[in-house]
From TrEMBL:
It holds the Pfam family Fungal_trans_2. PANTHER family: STEROL REGULATORY ELEMENT-BINDING PROTEIN ECM22 (PTHR47657:SF7). GO terms for molecular function: DNA-binding transcription factor activity, RNA polymerase II-specific. InterPro entries: Fun_TF, Zn2-C6_fungal_TF. This is Uncharacterized protein.
Length: 274
C-alpha cells in the first residue's frame, strides 16, 4: 500500500507542481515501503505464493515511481534488478504467479518485436558518436562486472546500426547483466564513487533516449511519458555528468547533449504528434 501511495504522490507532484507537499508525501511513503519490503525479503524463502506476488507488485510500483523521480536513477536500477530476482524466485518455487503473467525475454520479444522497425535507427550520426565515446571508456574498466555492463551497452549501440528490433533485444541484455551480478558487485557498480560506472549510466540514459520514441509508438497513442520521461532523464544525466572529473566529462558530453536535446524538443514533438 505504501508503494502505491508513494507512486500516486509522485504522479501528483509531477502533474500539479504547485502542490509541493506531494513530494514529501512520496518520500515518506517510499521510505515505509522500502522498510516493509526489506523485512519481507529477509524471510523470502518462507513466503507464500501470494506474499511473493505482493512483494513483486511492490517492486514494480517502486520501479515506476523511481523512473519519475529527479534523483531516482540508482533507485530505478536497484528496483529493476529486484523485480528480476523476485520473478526468478517465484518461478523457481511456484512455477508461476497468480497475479502476473511472467514472461521470459523471448516471449516479450515475440509480443513486441512485430511492432518495432526492422530498419536501422534513423539518426546514425548520434549512434556512431555514442559508439566512439563508449569505446573510449574501455581502457578505464578494471573489473568484470563493469566490463559486462559496458559490453551490453556497446552491443545495444551496435544493434541500432542494424534495426530497432535488434537494439530492443540487446537493451534487454543490459537488465540481464544487472540481474546476473553478485550482490556486492552490483552494489559496487551503483556506488557514487564508481566514476566509470557513472559514465556508463550516462550511456544507458542516451540509449533510453534513442529508444523511447519507438517504444512509445508500440503503445499506439500519445503519452505524457514522452515529456515527463525526457525531463527526468535530463535531470538524471545532469546529476551523473556533474559528478564526473573533467577528463571523463569530455568523453560523455555528446550523450548528455543528446538527452538535453530531446527535452528541449518536447514542445515541437508534441505539436507535431511524432
Amino acid at each position: 500500500m505504501h508503494a502505491i501511495l508513494s507512486l500516486g504522490a509522485t504522479h501528483y507532484d509531477l502533474t500539479i507542481p504547485s502542490n509541493s507537499h506531494y513530494n514529501a508525501m512520496a518520500i515518506s511513503h517510499r521510505g515505509k515501503a522500502l522498510k516493509y519490503l526489506s523485512l519481507a525479503l529477509a524471510d523470502i524463502d518462507s513466503c507464500s505464493a501470494a506474499s511473493l506476488d505482493g512483494i513483486l507488485a511492490t517492486c514494480y510500483a517502486l520501479v515506476f515511481q523511481a523512473y519519475y523521480m529527479n534523483d531516482g536513477a540508482i533507485d530505478f536500477a536497484v528496483m529493476v534488478r529486484g523485480c528480476s530476482l523476485i520473478t526468478t524466485h517465484i518461478q523457481r518455487r511456484f512455477k508461476g504467479s497468480k497475479m502476473f503473467l511472467l514472461q521470459n525475454s523471448e516471449e516479450v520479444m515475440q509480443l513486441i518485436e512485430p511492432w518495432l522497425s526492422k530498419d536501422m535507427h534513423p539518426n546514425q550520426d548520434d549512434v556512431n558518436l555514442c559508439i566512439r565515446d563508449i569505446e573510449q571508456l574501455h581502457p578505464f574498466i578494471h573489473d568484470g562486472s563493469t566490463l559486462c555492463f559496458f559490453e551490453s551497452l556497446l552491443n545495444t549501440y551496435l544493434a541500432f546500426q542494424h534495426s530497432i528490433q535488434d537494439a530492443f533485444r540487446c537493451l534487454g541484455d543490459v537488465y540481464k547483466v544487472w540481474h546476473s551480478m553478485e550482490n556486492q558487485n552490483f552494489m559496487n557498480l551503483i556506488t557514487s564513487t564508481n566514476i566509470i560506472s557513472r559514465a556508463l549510466f550516462l550511456h544507458y540514459f542516451a540509449i533510453d533516449t534513442l529508444m523511447r520514441p519507438f517504444l512509445l509508438h508500440v503503445r499506439g497513442h500519445k503519452h505524457p511519458s514522452l515529456s515527463v520521461g525526457a525531463i527526468v532523464m535530463e535531470q538524471w544525466a545532469d546529476a551523473a555528468y556533474y559528478g564526473l572529473p573533467g577528463n571523463i566529462q569530455r568523453l560523455v558530453k555528446h550523450e548528455v547533449d543528446l538527452v538535453r536535446r530531446e527535452k528541449a524538443n518536447i514542445p515541437l514533438i508534441l505539436r507535431d504528434g511524432s
